[in-house]
From TrEMBL:
Transmembrane segments: none annotated. It comes from the Bacteria. Belongs to the UPF0145 family. This is Heavy metal-binding domain-containing protein.
Length: 271
């Protein structure tokens, strides 16, 4: 157990002792699920055991792109990816310590403080859950708790359709978008015209993020990814440096011979 809890603070360990663990009715559960989500998660056959959190305060290295060159800033991409992974791993470790089968409603946050523009806190937060049917398999192939950013309603619908979440999968790409030359900028004044260098840069960066997310899903042996979200943020780097981030939940059928029920029937149950 000591190896499983490596990297957690003493205060986190004390908090976990007061939470309800798998197979126990002692302690309290905590959750950031809404009331409706909580009831649907229970109706899907799971019991919340505790809110689990992972954090990593990370110093982001320095890398600059050429003024007139569109290019990935690999140092920054690696920092954004590794810091989120550290936060996710610590959240999963807390869930594992509680004996949870998975974590639902996961959200990833990036917080910046007055320490400087090159330092950020990466947080992963979700509700650890335990399946009431202890004979069912919901953990990953590596026997780790599953992770999912689906809402309680979508989690319920997914299970009713005969699928289960495997893990959250993500792809990141920090990209420097080249500046326009002064000559071209002046030439476009007052005109409706596509800016092909901007278009190509944005397209390429999103494709890299999506490709990396899909590779994670392939490595997890998933059938597909649901609830995919694409976002772009500058994180204070400036207008021409943007992180393109793709995230979703990798899923697989509960049974190999599964046939999806009528979507209208599932939706009517969810109303």
């Amino acid at each position: 157990m000591s190896e499983q809890l490596e990297g957690l603070s003493q205060h986190a360990l004390e908090r976990l002792k007061g939470l309800r663990s798998a197979g126990s009715h002692e302690g309290v559960f905590t959750s950031d699920l809404s009331v409706n989500e909580y009831l649907l998660v229970r109706d899907a056959g799971f019991e919340p055991v505790g809110l689990v959190v992972g954090s990593s305060v990370y110093h982001i290295g320095l890398q600059r792109g050429g003024y007139n060159q569109s290019m990935e800033l690999t140092v920054l991409t690696q920092a954004m990816y590794e810091s989120r992974e550290l936060a996710m791993e610590r959240m999963e470790t807390e869930a594992h310590a509680l004996g949870a089968d998975g974590i639902v409603g996961v959200r990833l946050e990036v917080n910046r403080y007055e320490w400087g523009s090159d330092v950020a806190e990466f947080m992963a937060i979700g509700t650890a859950v335990v399946a009431r049917d202890q004979g069912a398999k919901f953990r990953t192939h590596e026997n780790r708790p599953f992770t999912s950013d689906l809402s309680g309603q979508d989690f319920w619908t997914l299970l009713k359709a005969g699928y289960r979440p495997l893990s959250m999968v993500m792809g990141s790409c920090v990209y420097h978008v080249a500046h326009q030359s002064m000559f071209k900028a002046f030439g476009n004044i007052g005109r409706n015209v596509e800016l092909p260098n901007f278009t190509q840069a944005m397209y390429d960066a999103r494709e890299l993020a999506m490709e990396r997310m899909q590779k994670e899903a392939h490595d997890a042996k998933a059938e597909g990814v649901v609830g995919v979200q694409l976002s772009e943020k500058s994180h204070g780097w400036g207008s021409h440096v943007i992180e393109f981030f793709a995230i979703g939940t990798a899923v697989t059928p509960i049974r190999a011979d599964h046939v999806i029920a009528s979507p209208s029937l599932i939706l009517s149950l969810n109303d």
